[in-house]
Amino acid sequence: MTATTTSARSELSELGRSETALRTFLHGLPGVDQVGAEQRAAQLGTRSIKTTAKAQAIDLAIRMVDLTTLEGADTPGKVRALAAKALRPDPADPSCPHVGAVCVYPAMVPHVAEVLRGSGVHLASVATAFPSGQAPLEIKLADTRAAVAAGADEIDMVINRGAFLAGRYKEVYDEIVATKEAAGDAHLKVILETGELATYDNVRRASWLAMLAGGDFIKTSTGKVPVAATPPVTLVMLEAVRDFRAATGRQVGVKPAGGIKNTKDAIKYLVMVNETVGTDWLDPDWFRFGASSLLNDLLMQRTKLTTGTYSGPDYFTLD
Questions:
Q1: Is residue 273 part of a domain?
Q2: Annotated catalytic, 140?
Q3: Catalytic residue status for 255
Q4: Quick one: pLDDT band at residue 298, thresholds 50, 70, 90?
Q5: Residue in 143, 156, 216, 265 annotated catalytic
Q6: Which domain does 297 fall in, by range?
Q7: 9-13, 99-103, 149-153, 287-291: lowest mean pLDDT where?
Q8: What is the pLDDT of residues 233-257, one digit of tens each?
Q9: Which one is catalytic: 140, 180, 255, 268?
């Protein structure tokens, strides 16, 4: 890290001390060209990836999946089965890689931990009154501590969108800092819920706010609102992590979540990552897909490439 980068990082770390400083910085960020962002995302989506490169992309995408179930009807048996699938996505093919993580509600964490312990697959838990974030801070922090104590090594928190949209940036900043502290050694993914932020400028500001407060990942969505991950929003977030690393020397991951259902879309996102931030982010430590049904399509396409025939949607377990 250069002296200039160290100085910039120190200056940015001071922004959280006052509402005025945060507001001035966030509203001083360059505005997002909406037409340009949407055209760029669409252009990247036209790239053709075939044969060997496609096979490598599919295996990488599998390794990047946060296999997720966040339903009120989740049971210990269901999440244990999901964890077993995370370890061996295709039981008939031991060369198939495992996924990046399993993501569940805090109450389900102990059951997943029984299966994943020592496997290398991460255990992520949503927290902080997911998905609304509408709870007192002490409850959000207790939620986080309980998930970590039960075995989660990644926490997916939600920001207070009401506070952010009202311009109470320091309140949002302070909640992220407190959650990061409560999470201890667990990695913190900060869910922006971009579908509720209304503008790309707000997505850029929320991304920077989350990173300034110490988030290890920025994540698009809970998957519980009509508009989840989109390519233009993910592009804006990728540009934010690129610029943040240039300014501070600290790398932050990105996780699009919700609505990514097939291999074609997943590969489009990988192309976007490569073209926007480079190969440093083409790794499960720095880019993830929050998904449930995506994995099955990746497995179907992988089988097609290796055998020449489709296995069919009912060949793999439904999640």
A1: yes
A2: no
A3: yes
A4: very high
A5: 156
A6: 3-307
A7: 9-13
A8: 999 999 999 999 999 999 999 999 9
A9: 255
Residue 9 banded pLDDT, cuts 50, 70, 90: low
Confidence (pLDDT) at 47? 87
Residue 199: pLDDT over 60: yes
Q: What residues form DSSP beta bridges with 289?
A: 65
Set 170, 189, 219, 268: catalytic member? 219
Within a domain: 83: yes
State if pTM tops 0.85: yes
Total domains in the chain come to 1
Is 170 a residue of the active site?
no
Whether a cis peptide bond, with omega within 30° of 0, leads into 231 is no
